[in-house]
Design a protein that fits this description.
The complex is a heterodimer. Chain A contains 5 helices and 5 strands; from the N terminus they run E-H-E-H-E-H-E-H-E-H. In chain A, helix 2 crosses helix 3. Chain B is mainly alpha-helical. Chain B has a domain of about 375 residues: Methylmalonyl-CoA mutase (TIM Barrel). The N and C termini of chain B lie far apart (about 55 Å). The chains are: A alpha/beta, B mainly alpha. At the A-B interface, helix 1, strand 2 and helix 3 of A face helix 4, helix 8 and helix 19 of B.
Chain lengths: ~140, ~550
């Protein structure tokens, strides 16, 4: 399924979701509110989403970027699974970003699995916003 | 006895101090007197105070100064590390290690599938099995964990603590089934289970069913425990997760105590008298980094709860009016940058909870912000209150900050703020209504975002993160879960299922369903089902079928 390419100046549509069973949504909600304040359209999917349902919603909502947050340690299973499902649905061009409690040494693995960017909690929000805008333009 | 100055003289003296002493500093700073921050508290801040009415003595109504007459019974409170990971065997071995190093009892963490009522072989469990806690699928798993104790009867009387909410009734049933197996009379069982489902919708997210049937299930456990397990704390109402999710100290008090009121009302609906079950209600609060405010918060909590229980619910036993709480050290104040600084944060937070009258504690290891704790970081966490108690002797006196003009004023101020939020919730129809309409969740998300913005703008300082930053980065040792754990647990579950009598399991689940459908207390059929090794998932599926599943509103 092809999605409309993002023209410069158009509002970025971004999805924020919590894959898996982790209920710690403070970071995800803060991110969603901050992206809204930065002028983006935010679709907040909330807790307990399967990789399949996240990918499905991302396609249905025609988003430019998918942001995932996980603090339970299951990211190595869940993040690549979202990438895979998007590819299966022909939407492999939607970049997937991850955040939460992701140990340094897992970042390369996640990138090799097709996760476009992995943010640590110490990255300033300005930088996160800039990177999302950049990825959305591609 | 101090000689109090009369208010008029004092006020005059205070004005003189402002105009003569403070004004000089203000001039130096180039500020007007009005722009100077309030930097001292005096008896003038406590003009309406009545010592006996508002404070009293420790162990006496309104318990502002503590629920026990002595500082901490027996010196230092038992310290228990929140622990559990992998399969029951790994957790048993870890517990043995902690017990061998002087830990009393245990505080058991379950993995997310267990906490949300999914068996390890459920598709949604993939990737989460044995993480953040141990997988408990059947009674056999809990039995294996308790092998950490040489004396089989020991775990039941060592005041263990269970972090179980949506599946709390199942865990209580399992604990009772094992007590039966090892010949421990139910009336001797001690311990605490979280069993606070309402805050799961607000903050922690491990709900299964909608709020109302969930509250009914909590009611079933209250009734069962009040009648059969009188020494077991059947609920630990949590402000901890509410605060950690972004609530202010006043909101933490108000949301938590409003949830508490909902549980008391549920107990009363069962025809229990308030004094039959209220003494076994316990709490857990966050002990954050705002040292004086945390101490004041604990004191305000005790006063509000005591007055609510006495005046609103007519509780006459002092034990029903006492707010006993354990504190959890605020992981949200921990930083992944320069993680060793978290040891300092833990010390401050631990001191606040001791000075605030906590009756138990869980110190978070310094590496919690980055990885699952290592053995070394766990040991440092265990030592933190030991050093405060044995070396610094901060546990010797009850409520050591009582009488501080500042802390008393903060206590009054937090009490007032919390009471006004509680009235807002009451006007909505109580805690359940304030959850169903998203009020509590919305307030917390707003709070979290505000705090985040303050940090990003530098209005709020976090050392090493937004100020005093260095390039240097200490990487702690990351705990790695054995990748074989998932397979191991799946094998354990398959073996347990093979050993049981399928017809007996089916029958017990059918009886359970019947009780749920007829709106009866489900605890007896539940006990029967766990004894027959019905799984957590099978049991929760019965309830899912009868009560439905909670779907939170999308969006924020």
């Amino acid at each position: 399924m092809a999605r409309s390419s993002t023209e410069p100046g158009k509002r970025v549509r971004v999805m924020v979701a919590k894959p898996g069973l982790d209920g710690h949504d403070r970071g995800a909600k803060v991110l969603a509110l901050a992206l809204k304040d930065a002028g983006m359209e935010v679709i907040y999917l909330g807790l307990r989403q399967s990789p399949e349902s996240i990918a499905r919603s991302a396609v249905d909502e025609n988003v430019d970027v998918v942001c995932l947050s996980c603090l339970s340690g299951a990211h190595n299973h869940l993040f690549p699974e979202v990438v895979r499902k998007l590819r299966e649905m022909g939407a492999g061009d939607i970049p997937v970003l991850g955040g939460g409690l992701i140990p340094e040494e897992d970042r390369d693995f996640l990138r090799s699995e097709g996760v476009a960017e992995v943010f640590s909690p110490t990255v300033p929000m300005k930088e996160v916003v800039r990177r999302i805008e950049e990825l959305a333009q591609r | 006895m101090t000689k109090d100055n009369d208010p008029a003289t004092l006020r005059q003296a205070y004005e003189n101090w402002r105009n003569e002493v403070l004004a000089r500093t203000a001039a130096k700073w180039g500020r007007s007197l009005e722009d100077m921050p309030k930097s001292v508290y005096t008896p003038l801040d406590l003009e309406d105070h009545d010592y006996l009415r508002d404070l009293g003595f420790p162990g006496q109504y309104p318990f502002t100064r503590g629920v026990y007459p002595t500082a901490i019974p027996g010196g230092l409170f038992g310290v228990r590390q929140y622990s559990g990971f992998g399969t029951a065997e790994e957790t048993r071995d870890r517990l043995r290690y902690l017990i061998g190093r002087g830990q009393a009892g245990f505080s058991l963490a379950s993995d997310l599938p267990t906490q949300i009522g999914y068996d390890s072989d459920h598709p949604l469990a993939r990737g989460e099995i044995g993480r953040i806690g141990v997988a408990i699928d059947t009674l056999e798993d809990l039995d294996t964990i308790l092998e950490a104790f040489e004396d089989k009867t020991q775990p039941f009387v060592s005041r263990p603590s269970f972090t179980a909410n949506s599946q709390a009734a199942v865990i209580i049933a399992m604990f009772v089934a094992l007590a039966d197996k090892y010949g421990v009379p139910l009336e001797n069982i001690t311990g605490t289970i979280q069993n606070d489902i309402l805050k799961e919708y607000v903050a922690r997210g491990t709900y299964i069913y909608p709020p109302r049937p969930s509250l009914k299930l909590v009611g079933d456990t209250i009734e069962f425990c009040a009648k059969r397990m009188p020494r077991f704390n059947f609920i630990s109402i949590s402000g901890y997760h509410i605060r950690e999710a972004g609530a202010s100290p006043a909101q933490e008090i108000a949301f938590t105590l409003s949830n508490g009121i909902a549980y008391v009302e549920e107990g009363l609906r069962r025809g229990l008298s308030v004094d039959d079950f209220a003494p076994r209600i316990s709490f857990i609060f966050a002990s954050g980094i705002l040292f004086f405010e945390e101490v004041a918060k604990f004191r305000a909590c005790r006063r509000i709860w005591a007055r609510t229980m006495k005046e609103r619910f007519g509780a006459s036993k002092p034990d029903s009016q006492k707010l006993r709480f354990a504190s959890g050290f605020a992981g949200s104040t921990y930083t992944s940058r320069r993680p060793l600084n978290n040891i300092i944060r833990a010390t401050i937070e631990c001191f606040a909870s001791i000075a605030g009258g906590a009756t138990g504690s869980a110190v978070a290891p310094y590496d919690e912000a980055i990885c699952l704790p290592t053995e070394e970081s766990s040991l440092i966490a265990l030592d933190t209150p030991r050093i405060l108690g044995y070396e610094a002797k901060v546990t010797d006196v009850n409520d050591p900050l009582g009488g501080s003009y500042y802390v008393e004023a903060l206590t009054d101020q937090l009490e007032e703020e919390a009471l006004s939020i509680m009235r807002v919730i009451e006007d909505m129809g109580g805690a359940v209504a304030a959850i169903e309409n998203g009020y509590m969740q919305g307030e917390i998300a707003k709070g979290a975002y505000e705090q985040f913005k303050q940090m990003e703008s530098g209005e709020k300082t976090v050392v090493g993160v937004n100020r005093f930053e260095t390039e240097e980065f200490t990487v702690c040792e990351t705990f790695r879960l054995d990748p074989q754990v998932e397979e191991k647990q799946l094998k354990r579950l398959a073996a347990a299922k093979k050993r049981r009598d399928p017809a007996a399991v089916r029958d017990s689940l059918k009886r359970l369903r019947g009780a749920a459908e007829r709106d009866e207390n489900v605890m007896e059929p539940l006990l029967d089902a766990v004894k027959r090794n019905a799984t957590v998932g099978e049991i929760c599926d019965v309830f899912r079928d009868v009560w439905g599943e909670y779907r939170p509103p999308q969006g924020i």
